[in-house]
Amino acid sequence: MAKSLLTTSLSARTKLLQTGVSLYNTSHGFHEEEVKKILEQFPGGSIDLQKKQNGIGILTLNNPNKMNAFSGVMMLQLLERVIELENWTEGKGLIVHGAKNTFCSGSDLNAVKALSTPENGVALSMFMQNTLTRFMRLPLISVALVQGWAMGGGAEFTTACDFRLMTVESVIRFVHKEMGIVPSWGGASRLVEIIGSRQALKVLSGTFKLDSKKALNIGLADEVLQSSDEYKALEEAQEWLEQFVSGPPAVIRGLKTSVCSGRELYLEEALQNERDVLGTLWGGPANLEAIAKRGKHTK
């Protein structure tokens, strides 16, 4: 009986929220393997992932000679890391930061210059929107630790995280207008959700340099960290994140999934999805243990 109540036909929108599903495919004129072959031609840097026993992952954008700008290979590696995180069942949280005390300066200009046709630009946009949307939908609570500069695509990446922490000297800047384009990795749409349409229009059209104080005032940053040292700031970020990921992985992941569905689905679909997530937890180990403990506390 209970199982039948949890079984519903999923709409196309609901299916998009399932792990490993991308926004674009061949029906949209997107051919992922062809894009991958193009991106392979632009090496440099790496995307490094450390999965810790406490359920917090550390994703490092590592191309310090170019302020951690994304090379083509790094874009491919980001997708690989996202797939790895989709399969990390013990994961609860994720911190994204850049090597050598800076976040990310966007795309490597060598790749940008070589991919200058509208067709290439759209294909690259679809690839990165796919990747960052899957990243955003991970059942992990994610934090962007912004040290130094987050510009262009780097600024867009911060919006794919659930939270943004900044050091005192750090700056977020959407420089796309000065490059004669608009955000193409989904950053404009996500920015509207985070700070509202009026503020987003100001930030994008004014190409504002958002220091930590300004970013905090408009709601883009969630907190300004005390330390500007690369490693101490990372420790602070982990301590900050731990308050939200304490507890069983299944519960934390369920909460993130429920919030994602509430953000992206129609109300009826979101309610159904929330119900289905509950069905995986109600009467489970974490639920029964919590009930037993509460019973003891009331005695």
UniProtKB/TrEMBL annotation:
It is found in: Cytoplasm, Cytosol. It catalyses: (S)-methylmalonyl-CoA + H(+) = propanoyl-CoA + CO2; (2S)-ethylmalonyl-CoA + H(+) = butanoyl-CoA + CO2; (2R)-ethylmalonyl-CoA + H(+) = butanoyl-CoA + CO2. It holds the Pfam family ECH_1. SUPFAM superfamilies: ClpP/crotonase. GO terms for cellular component: cytosol. Keywords: Acetylation, Cytoplasm, Lyase. It is an enzyme of class 4 (lyase). It comes from the Eukaryota. Gene3D superfamilies: 2-enoyl-CoA Hydratase, Chain A, domain 1 (3.90.226.10). Belongs to the enoyl-CoA hydratase/isomerase family. This is Ethylmalonyl-CoA decarboxylase. It comes from Peromyscus maniculatus bairdii (Prairie deer mouse).
